[in-house]
Design a protein that fits this description.
This is DUF4932 domain-containing protein. Residues 153-181 are annotated as: Disordered. This protein has 20 helices and 5 strands. Helix 13 (302-318) crosses helix 14 (320-331). It is mainly α and 479 residues long. The strands form 2 sheets. A 3-stranded mixed β-sheet has the order 3-5-4, with helices on one face. Strands 1-2 form a two-stranded antiparallel sheet. The longest helix is centred in the C-terminal third of the chain and has 22 residues, at 393-414. It folds into 2 domains: 22-140, no CATH class; 146-474, no CATH class.
Length: 479
């Protein structure tokens, strides 16, 4: 019989010490952060008050207000936060320390996340919301060499084609881009676009008498919340570097989701979806020069974009078969409306199971779609605004999203456990197919060019630009 150990004072103190904030170096590649929370632990109440008075004075507030902050936890939170910034102030020359203190004093949370030795939530929130992370990344991540910048720029906007125009060509700007051959664009684009829709729709073909099966809404909700948590965790420090970004402004991915399969689209919805796929077809070079090149289509010209939009609208208005395909396509492909102040609107998910593969494989594809559509909410508006200023807008609009989707989705697979896989497969019937890491990016040429840019500039520059909008890091030139 084993005699139970009698607890000692050292045992109790070990537990206390384990759960206390500590001094350490926090590794947030490519950054390292000095954490000196342990120094604050030794402060008595009078010293805490003296420090708070000094903080209020530096921040430009009435020092007497410091004594009105009586909640012990809130007093310590502010002291920990300021101490964290002070310890890392020198790492970012020119950082607005006073402005950061002013923000902290004005934004003391009602229910603060306190420092802990086993996670970095406190540090990410303080350094992110005060702008330190963004400033530190910009100071740390090197500017692109000219040669790399030029290579990246060519992925967004190749030189204008010198293909002569044909009958029915519209007038174009004096930038050496040939005028748009409207007849050629219609003739070549619409049949291939219809083929793309057919190939997508037949994936839901069912045998006679086979009833459709749908994914449960609560299962997709679990996946959506998991995707948001994974993105926050593995995209650091970049995710926290946008101080006004969605993670800091009440972003709740699942609250934006609606059932796409049971939604009837408007005409505007249909044409918007077709525009995305028109670019996939129009930029395809697998058989030689792309349709857009042959027709002289230039997305930097608003007249060309308007013409394409109207052409697609007229196509589904005049062709009942095309319209039926477009409606089914809309109802069976995920989408993000990009509406709202935070850059993300309603997120439509497909609830119907595809019948051309095991349900578990279809679920993994749904999970990837969930990650992709969530990622649309994370791209910085400054980066998204460049889509009208390049000849290949889908490289940014969808290709960049695919790159970050790959980062998050593959992390979910690489770090998944048997229990997490079971949760992700809730409601799935039949054989469980193991997940396959994402290696090929969607959106054809646009995905390939985005991946090329990622390889050229490197992960640090790419994710910094994606989250902070510092577009020079990915070879774009500010207006």
């Amino acid at each position: 019989m084993t005699t139970p150990k009698i607890p000692t004072m050292d045992d109790a103190l070990a537990v206390v010490q384990r759960d206390q904030p500590v001094n350490r170096t926090l590794d947030l590649p490519p950054l390292q952060v000095n954490v000196k929370h342990g120094d604050v632990l030794g402060f008595g109440d009078q010293e805490v008050t003296a420090q708070l008075i000094r903080i209020y004075r530096i921040a430009g507030h009435d020092p007497a207000l410091a004594q009105e902050l009586t909640d012990t936890q809130l007093r310590l939170w502010l002291l920990y936060a300021v101490n964290l910034l002070a310890e890392n102030r020198a790492a970012v020359p020119g950082f607005d320390f006073k402005g950061a203190l002013t923000w902290l004093v004005r934004n003391i949370p009602a229910e603060p996340v306190m420092p802990a030795p086993n996670h970095a939530e406190f540090e990410l929130h303080v350094l992110g919301r005060t702008g330190w992370l963004r400033a530190a990344l910009k100071a740390k991540v090197a500017r692109l060499p000219d040669q790399v910048r030029q290579q990246a720029a060519a992925c967004y906007s190749p030189p204008p084609s010198n293909v002569p125009s044909g009958p029915g060509a519209s007038s174009g700007p004096s930038d050496q881009t040939p005028p748009l051959d409207k007849d050629l664009l219609r003739k070549e684009l619409l049949p291939k676009l219809q083929n793309l829709l057919v190939n997508h729709v037949v994936q839901w073909r069912r045998q006679a008498g086979q009833e459709p099966r749908f994914q449960r809404w609560e299962d997709l909700g679990l996946i959506a919340r998991l995707a948001q948590a994974v993105a926050w965790r593995m995209l650091q420090p970049y995710a926290a570097a946008r101080e006004d970004g969605p993670f800091f402004t009440g972003f709740d991915y699942f609250s934006k989701i609606y059932d796409k399969t049971r939604t009837m689209p408007s005409e505007q919805d249909l044409v918007k979806h077709l525009m995305n796929r028109a670019y996939v077809v129009g930029e395809d070079t697998s058989a030689g020069k792309s349709i857009f090149t042959l027709a002289g289509y230039d997305s930097m010209r608003s007249d060309d974009r308007v013409f394409l939009f109207k052409t697609l609208g007229q196509w589904i208005a005049d062709n009942s078969t095309a319209r039926k395909l477009a409606v089914y396509f809309f109802q069976h492909i995920g989408s993000n409306s990009h509406a709202g102040a935070d850059g993300g609107g309603g997120v439509g998910l497909v609830t119907e199971f595809r019948t051309d593969r095991p349900e578990s494989q279809a679920r993994w594809e749904t999970i990837e779609t969930i990650v992709h559509e969530m990622t649309h909410n994370l791209i910085h508006p400054n980066l998204l605004a460049q889509t009208d200023k390049v000849r290949r807008p889908m490289v940014i609009k969808e290709g960049f999203i695919e790159v970050v989707t790959r980062e998050v989705f593959n992390w979910m697979i690489d770090n998944g456990s048997e229990s997490s896989t079971k949760r992700l497969m809730m409601g799935v019937e039949g054989q469980l197919v193991p997940p396959v890491r994402k290696t090929t990016l969607g959106y054809a040429e646009s995905g390939a060019y985005a991946d090329q840019i990622f390889q050229l500039v490197g992960r640090e520059r790419f994710l910094t630009a994606f989250m902070t909008g510092d577009i020079e890091l990915v070879g774009l030139t500010p207006s």
